[in-house]
């Protein structure tokens, strides 16, 4: 069986992408949880992951002797190994678009990711109001997200970005969580899409587990000193 190494569900957005994809697609895997206790070379997390992966990061997928690190590489590997799951859109043009927006997420939206780190169990609406007021780059990132999602939902008719659930929806699931946590202003149609994503069984299972963790990791809490 596949093994997927992940970090804390409350904080680990990159882990969430791979986990949600496999869970929502019905691909069996064994979860291997490695708690965030630090990212320096002496931390238990780093020692554990460095022994398994050259990057020492999560997520990491193990398939027998094969190791796949990086969430986008894991998504591509899953799509290749399980073609019947149709993780990418079947239409060539739609598939190219889906790959493009996943790559855009992978390398972009740095302002939003930096100013609004994922924190599923927190209510950071007040922080969100300050970020929105003071950070033009975050506003630009959100504008791009809303434009992208609106176009794709209109083009493919919903309920997901490319009609049916795909890697693209798994890839943007942590962004949906950020927008809810910080309550950044978004149009109604985008809010409706976010709610549909949150109701996907794979996403709901991740969120429920994140809420049950009850694990305050100070290094992942730039806006709170305690829970």
UniProtKB/TrEMBL annotation:
Annotated InterPro entries: Glutathione-S-Trfase_C_sf, Glutathione_S-Trfase, Glutathione_S-Trfase_N, Thioredoxin-like_sf
UniProt xrefs under CDD domains: GST_C_3, GST_N_1
GO biological process annotation, one example: glutathione metabolic process
PROSITE patterns, per the entry: GST_NTER
GO MF annotations in UniProt: glutathione transferase activity; maleylacetoacetate isomerase activity
Alphabetized PANTHER family for the sequence: MALEYLACETOACETATE ISOMERASE (PTHR42673:SF4)
Record protein name field: Glutathione S-transferase family protein
Upper classification of the organism: Bacteria, Pseudomonadati, Pseudomonadota, Betaproteobacteria, Burkholderiales
């Amino acid at each position: 069986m596949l093994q997927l190494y992940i970090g804390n569900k409350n904080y680990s957005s990159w882990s969430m992408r791979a986990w949600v994809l496999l869970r929502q697609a019905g691909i069996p895997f064994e979860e291997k949880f490695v708690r965030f206790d630090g990212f320096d070379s002496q931390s238990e997390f780093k020692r554990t992951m460095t022994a398994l992966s050259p990057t020492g990061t999560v997520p990491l997928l193990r398939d027998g002797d094969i190791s796949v690190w990086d969430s986008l590489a894991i998504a591509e590997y899953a799509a290749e190994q399980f073609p019947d799951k149709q993780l990418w859109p079947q239409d060539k043009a739609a598939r190219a678009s889906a790959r493009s927006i996943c790559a855009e997420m992978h390398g972009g939206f740095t302002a939003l990711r930096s100013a609004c780190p994922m924190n599923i169990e927190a209510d950071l609406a007040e922080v969100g109001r300050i970020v929105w007021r003071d950070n033009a780059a975050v506003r630009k990132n959100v504008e791009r997200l809303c434009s992208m999602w609106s176009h794709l939902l209109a083009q493919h008719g919903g309920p997901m970005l490319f009609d049916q659930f795909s890697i693209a929806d798994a890839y943007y699931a942590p962004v949906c969580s950020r927008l809810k946590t910080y309550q950044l202003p978004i149009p109604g149609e985008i809010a409706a899409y976010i709610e549909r994503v949150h109701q996907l069984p794979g996403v709901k299972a991740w969120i429920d587990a994140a809420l049950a963790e009850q694990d305050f990791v100070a290094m992942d809490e730039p806006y709170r000193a305690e829970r």
